[in-house]
């Protein structure tokens, strides 16, 4: 089976996020960007499925030159080859523009299964997988905590607010996975050396047959109008215990007032 994994090169979430005041976009410094940690669970899932059933794994991302680093990381983990959609016309892409570019590559790959993280760690929209499934006309199996493939069907335990439910779909399909699905493997030194020699294809908008007006800022249907710093104020209430026991009554009354108890 062929499994394609959509990954993303993001600013390191342990570092302060910087937004360009002019473009209102995240500043993506290559030296401070990494493979999205959420995508490592997708990569691990793909590797395990192909180890079990045989086949090929492909990592795909859209981004600037630095996004190659994310793909090399995925290949160091074990992914067979990768594709970077790299074109200045893609700058300013929204969810739809991003999904449109990824879908163009996936249509050429014709995978049995597409795997995505539930959401990216930099934007947190969680909308790209669903949009991709719609563009590719694939069944969407989301929030998977475990997955099995049996012939031409996929079965997954899907996380819910109260537990999980088991869902099935026919292949080809699109799957999103949670952090519960597996522990991502750490790239070995040998894997990192091999990743440097693996095939990494760069492709632009024209090669995908896309109109430049349909992607990037030109094709975006949403725009960031303003960016503001969030200010958090902590409210502290001090209760003095004078030994009378009234402090306990006061604490309980306060907790009830804010609907904690």
Characterization of this structure:
This protein is of the alpha/beta class and 261 residues long. It has one domain: Rossmann fold. Helices cover 28% and strands 25% of the residues. The protein contains seven helices and eleven strands. Strands 9-8-7-10-6-1-4-5-11 form a nine-stranded mixed sheet, with helices on both faces. It has a two-stranded antiparallel ribbon with strand order 2-3. Helix 2 packs across helix 5 (189-195). The longest helix is centred in the first third of the chain and has 17 residues, at 37-53. The radius of gyration is 22 Å and the shape is globular. It starts with a strand and ends with a helix. 34% of the residues are buried.
Could you outline the blueprint of secondary structure elements for this entry?
Layout: E1 2-6, E2 9-11, E3 33-35, H1 37-53, E4 56-62, H2 68-77, E5 81-85, H3 95-109, E6 113-117, H4 128-136, E7 140-150, E8 153-160, E9 163-170, E10 173-177, H5 189-195, E11 200-203, H6 216-219, H7 246-257
Parallel strand pairs: 1-4, 1-6, 4-5, 5-11, 6-10, 7-10
Antiparallel strand pairs: 2-3, 7-8, 8-9
In a nutshell, what does this entry contain?
With 261 residues, the protein is of the alpha/beta class. The protein is 28% helix and 25% strand.
* Helical segment count: 7
**Main beta-sheet strand count, sense and barrel state:** 9 strands, mixed
CATH fold-type name: Rossmann fold
CATH superfamily: HUPs
How is the largest sheet built, in terms of strand order? 9-8-7-10-6-1-4-5-11
Q: What is the name of the CATH architecture?
A: 3-Layer(aba) Sandwich
What order do the helices and strands follow?
Answer: EEEHEHEHEHEEEEHEHH
Q: Are there runs of 5+ residues with pLDDT below 50, and where?
A: none
Topology, number of strands: 11
Q: What spatial form do the alpha-carbon principal axes imply?
A: globular
Give the % helix: 25-40%
From the helix content, strand content and strand pairing, which structural class follows? alpha/beta
| Text of the CATH class | Alpha Beta
Report the C-alpha radius of gyration, rounded.
22 Å
Strand content: 15-25%
The tally of domains stands at 1
What number is the mean pLDDT? 90
The end-to-end span amounts to 52 Å
């Amino acid at each position: 089976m062929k499994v394609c994994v959509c990954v993303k090169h993001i600013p390191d979430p342990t570092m302060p996020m910087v937004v360009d005041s002019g473009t209102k976009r995240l500043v993506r410094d290559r030296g401070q960007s990494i493979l999205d940690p959420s995508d490592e669970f997708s990569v691990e899932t793909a590797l395990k499925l192909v180890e079990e059933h045989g086949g090929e794994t492909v990592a795909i991302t859209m981004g600037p030159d630095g996004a190659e680093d994310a793909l090399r990381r995925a290949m160091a983990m074990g992914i067979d080859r990768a594709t970077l959609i790299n074109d200045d016309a893609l700058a300013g892409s929204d969810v739809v523009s991003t999904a449109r570019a990824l879908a163009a590559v996936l249509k050429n790959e014709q995978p049995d299964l597409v795997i995505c993280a539930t959401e990216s760690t930099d934007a947190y929209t969680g909308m790209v997988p669903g949009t991709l499934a719609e563009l590719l006309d694939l069944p969407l199996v989301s929030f998977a905590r475990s997955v099995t493939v049996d012939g031409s069907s996929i079965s997954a335990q899907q996380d819910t607010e109260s537990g999980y439910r088991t869902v099935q779909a026919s292949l080809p399909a699109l799957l999103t996975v949670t952090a519960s699905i597996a522990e991502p493997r750490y790239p070995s030194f040998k894997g990192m050396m091999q990743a440097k020699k693996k095939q990494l294809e760069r492709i632009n908008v024209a090669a995908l047959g896309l109109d430049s007006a349909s992607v990037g800022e030109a094709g975006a249907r949403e725009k960031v109008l303003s960016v503001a710093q969030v200010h958090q104020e902590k409210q502290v209430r001090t209760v003095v215990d004078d030994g009378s026991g009234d402090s306990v009554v006061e604490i309980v009354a306060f907790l009830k007032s804010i609907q904690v108890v």
